[in-house]
Amino acid sequence: MSLQLSLQLVIIRLTATEDSQEIFETLNARGTPLTAADLIKNYVFQRLRLEGTNTADAYARWPFETKFWEAEVSVGRFPTTRSALFLSQWLVSQVGREISPRSTFSRFKFFTEHETERTMSELLDIITAQAKHYEELTRRAADPHADLDRVALHFYRMSVAQVEITKAIALWLTSPETKYRPQTIASVIDRVESWIMRRRLLRLQSGDLGRIASELISYARNAADDDVIAKVEQYLTGLVSTSTYWPGDDEVRSSLQHVHFYQRFSQPMQRVFLQAVEDWHRGYTANGHSKTGIRVHRAKQQVEHLLPRTWQTHWPVADAAAGAERDDNVHRLGNLTLLTGPLNASVSNASWLGDGGKRAELRKHDVLLMNRVVIDGSADGWDEVRIAERTDAMITALLETWPVPERHEGKTVDRSARFSKATTSYADLISAGLIEVGAVLVCTEERWHDARGTLLAGGQMLYDGKTYSSPAAAANAVRGGRSGNAWYFWRVENGAWLKDLREELLRRQ
Fold first, then answer.
1. What is the pLDDT of residues 328-374, one digit of tens each?
2. I need a surface site. Which of 107, 150, 274, 289 has the fewest CB within 10 A?
3. 311 vs 236: which has the higher pLDDT
4. Please, which residues have CB within 8 angstroms of residue 459's CB and are 6 or more apart in sequence?
């Protein structure tokens, strides 16, 4: 009875001149908030009605009404539905700007009203197609025995690493209107994944990476198929802040040689890294060719210590110093491998040699190539020397799985040497790869809308047949000798304002 007395029903009657969407948003703000997907859905169908689209047909196309899309996922501190997360990622792929989960709806509304010439019906077709592909990639990535293409493999690895920021890059590359070939898309994914995984191997912070992923889209989105890989490399290698840089080979190798790998990473991440090593043995690298034609399956193999953690029973040493060294080596990368659960249980703490030893059982029952190498090279035992050698070889496998461009060192810039608005020059934009020599600059002010020039080496500018020391000097000439802020006066033809490129350079630090 008390429940019946507390129940209240509110009926809102609207006239033909009232905006139902505005009222809907107001009620949502004052009550229990709906997800971004709920708000976007209501807005989309209101716009479709205004366009005269058959909304019944459109409802049939709306893809987000299944358990897959209604599932709750977490992004940082914000729990949300998978549909809301996808729409946020899709929007980033369209605008090339970082979007917080809480601003997805308002940013979507602004995009559709001010930043695209497509009708809502056209946008719905694109969203539906990409949502279906996204779901297919996600489901395939979760299947441990599926034969994954490069993008699906990336989805798998990022799901284990709990990284969502690169999904927007994948959506940009694989849109229905993409101009990129599958091999080009795979090569871009190789570089983006290398940037992520090398930072994960070093356990570097990831709080600023979402901004970088969105800016990478903005930076490279207009590049042709022949140029986009170089543009992505140029952007990622230009990152010099400790919070965003792309680590080089020397730093990764130095860090992993002595680290206790087993204790440093979660079991799922250890499996991903060891699976990459196995795939490397099978010929799968960023530039390699498969020897076997199939990657290792991604079922939950168990991470096994070749030299067991409880080594004292069957692996005695001479003294306490040797015991301390053994303890220091047992959790290193070179002492870890993948085994099936039953095999792991049968050999876990066994001795290495002998008929019932771990080596003999591996030879008899295991099929992984990474373990074949161990078996072939340890006929006289397994010890600290071999662990160090295998660690170095496995680091090589990881570096070649996630390579960096030739001569990239991954150095960071000292904070004391950072740029500022006052010190940044036009030449700095060229050095950072944000603008190229030969770029055409056009005036942003209507009064001189025909003014245009060409950026030259060293930050000089060619305008009206004369070379000026900088875009600022050229801007003064356009204005008839009057000074002004050239960062706001010029923009790249069909591209960013110089002020925005300067802001991007400052944000990279």
1. 999 999 999 998 877 766 676 778 888 778 888 888 888 899 999 99
2. 289
3. 236
4. 425, 426, 427, 428, 429, 430, 470, 471
Task: Say how far apart CA 403 and CA 399 lie, in whole Å.
Answer: 5
**Which element (helix H / strand E) includes 176?**
none
Per this entry, what is the length of the chain? 509
The answer for residues whose C-beta is within 8 angstroms of residue 430's C-beta and 6 or more apart is 436, 437, 455, 457, 458, 459
Alpha carbon distance 318, 99 (integer Å): 60
Q: Indicate whether 473 and 354 sit together in one domain.
A: no
Does a structural domain hold residue 136? yes
Q: Which helix (H) or strand (E) holds 440?
A: strand 440-443
Task: Please check whether residues 242 and 264 belong to one and the same domain.
Answer: no
Give the mean model confidence (pLDDT) for residues 314-327.
88
Residue 2 in domain: no
Question: With 50 as the cut, is the pLDDT of residue 455 above it?
Answer: yes
Q: With beta carbons less than 8 A apart as the criterion, state whether 420 and 406 touch.
A: no
pLDDT single digits (tens) 127-152: 999 999 999 999 999 999 999 999 99
Q: What is residue 416's predicted lDDT score, i.e. its pLDDT?
A: 47
CA-closest candidate to residue 302, choices 270, 328, 331: 270
Q: Which domain holds residue 424?
A: 415-507
Last residue of a domain, one of 359, 375, 401: 401
Edge to edge, what strands does the sheet with 452-455 contain? 466-468, 461-463, 452-455, 440-443, 490-492
Nearest Cα residue to 474 out of 451, 492, 440? 451
Alpha carbons 88 and 103: distance in angstroms, whole number: 9
Judge contact between 491 and 502, C-beta under 8 A: no
Into how many domains does the chain fold?
Answer: 3
Q: Kindly calculate the radius of gyration of the chain based on its CA atoms and give it in whole angstroms.
A: 28
- Tell whether 87 and 121 lie within a shared domain: yes
pLDDT recorded at residue 4:
61
Say which residue, 91 or 493, is predicted with more confidence.
Answer: 91
The one-character DSSP state at 304 is E
Residues 113 and 180 in one domain: yes
**Taking residues 78-102, what's their average pLDDT?**
90
